[in-house]
Amino acid sequence: MLVENVLLISIDTLRADRLEVYGYGRPTSPNLSGIAKRSVVFADARAQAPQTAPSHASVFTSEYPGAHRIVNAHGGSTEVTQLPAGVTTLAELARRGGLETAAFVSGGNLTQRMGMDRGFELWDERLTDVSERVDACVRWMLAPDRGRFVALLHTYQVHAPYLPPRELVAEFVDAGYDGPLRERTERYLALPAHEAWEAATGPAYWEGLLEYTDADVRFLSDLYDAEIRHVDSEIQRLFAYLQGSELGSKTAVIIFSDHGEEFRDHGKYQHDQVFEEHLRVPLIVRLPRALQQEGLVGRVDAPVELVDIAPTLGELLGLPYGDTGWEGRSLVPLLRSSERPDRSWTERPVFSELVIDPGPKYHRAVVWQGWKYVHIWQKNIDHVWEQLFQLQADPGERRNLVEDSGPEATRALPALRELLEQQTRRNAAKAAALGEGGTVEMDEDMLQLMIKLGYVELGAGGR
Predict the structure, then answer these.
(1) Structural domain contains residue 104
(2) How far is CA 447 from the centre of its chain?
(3) Which residues sit opposite 361 in a β-bridge?
(4) What is the pTM (predicted TM-score) of this model?
């Protein structure tokens, strides 16, 4: 056992390259930068899916989406998928080890209805401001006689709609912008915070997006940056509580995001593709001061995945996770500067995938030795698209090298195809072994929330 407790902080929809510690030039996250100086920062972490439900399911179960088969609620369906019976969640592992478990989440596609609460004694699911989620989490952690624990704090605060506090709008948004989104945002900001978020969710917020100018997109992007700054201040407030109590010397904090966000980087908005802006996420591990002094700080450049979080938590807490069948690897060996990294890390392939309607359309991606291969299959028309990128030379993924006749591309392409096919077969075998998770109807509260969030659209025949 390295630590007594672990706190997981999930900042939904936060792309890594919008934080200063990952090279961003705007002051979106001064507090996270300060935390990172005394942490281990994973510079090349990727999500297993660019959507909330499958990504968090991979965090909780250390299984790839093709194995756990959780997907976001979407389209006209009023059902949601549930975790399969055969998986062990990180919270279940913690409970077996005698730890207390609690989650303070914001609902939506991270919900009890999907079985995401398995192993959590307390599952507090409310779509509220990040400040309220921080308060609830702190109250629980600081309760008298609190035993060893694993806790989760989740916020949608940087997810669309981007509605930061007004003072941060003034700090981050171009005062000269007078496009149509300015007046729309001002209408929302005039409402109380909880009413503004509810009023702005769903399709109404994106009205006219096909006609957005570059200035409109920049305005949205600036609002997103301001939202990050708001969350950054709340994370600092949480850390102040931790450091002001005895928990500071006993608790490891793992800060991550489930996926990123797109601002027309590749022609779209939000997060339904598998480009780097959707998959590259922050992953920061802050250990107690005694371990920092032993050298457990610094930067790790080896490629890692969100499926690695559960086994990392297991090893930090001294819990036996070897019989879970988890796919990820514990990152504890990489936490020590004297041990990082060997070839088994630097040459490791990293996999991500996405299932979306209509079609459905299956996106699968693998990153390996500086190359990225994307395979997209639309089932209803049985059509395949392929993309190949050399990420070091082309980090923005602008040049598709699938048809390139150069020797490097022609060597990389078949190897990447084979890696992806091997992983797909492995996922299918794991899915069969884990069993069926089944589906469950949304209750009325969840259905209305999903409609407001824009995930579910019911026609005249809907309930």
Answers:
(1) yes
(2) 23
(3) 356, 378
(4) 0.94
